[in-house]
Amino acid sequence: MDELTEEQVAALVRRLEERVASLQTSIRDHLAQLRDVSAPGHDSTPPGDIVDQADAGLQRDEQNDAMSRETIEMQEIALAFDRLSTGQANVCIDCGEPIGFQRLLAQPTATRCVACQDDSERGEFLKARGNRNQNGIGTAR
Ligand SMILES: [Zn+2]
Q: What domains lie within the chain, and their CATH numbers?
């Protein structure tokens, strides 16, 4: 099996650490913005202004969405660190074949080789289509 060299592991760790740093910054920003939005009204805004409230709610939703995406990525990164520490970082979770280093460098949180990733995305796509349209798709194999 192709194992990653120390240099390759170090490069991936660096990538992941950079990503963590930038995620932490943006999560902090989002938290700060959420605090601003949720803060009791400014003096210039009459309390109970319905448009402002709706606006604040919308902003809050967007911040929450962004934060949940960032949290998920943090979890993926933690998983990638785990995989690096056990020497499994370049092993496809589906077929066990090595994942190319270039692919890992581009996407250090990747857990599948290109072929399996394609399969998995196509599977999800077909599933999504199958749910909408019950006839035909998925019967042929
Ligand atoms: Zn694979």
A: 6-112 (1.20.120.910)
Q: What is the pLDDT of residues 84-141, one digit of tens each?
A: 999 899 999 999 999 999 999 999 999 999 999 999 999 888 888 886 655 545 544 4
User: Residue 63: what residue type?
Assistant: Q
What's the CA-to-centroid distance between 62 and ligand 1, angstroms?
35
Span from the CA of 108 to the centroid of ligand 1 (angstroms) = 15
Q: Integer distance in angstroms from the first to the last C-alpha of the chain?
A: 31
For the chain, strand residue ranges (E) read: none
Give the span between the Cα atoms of 110 and 108, in whole angstroms: 6
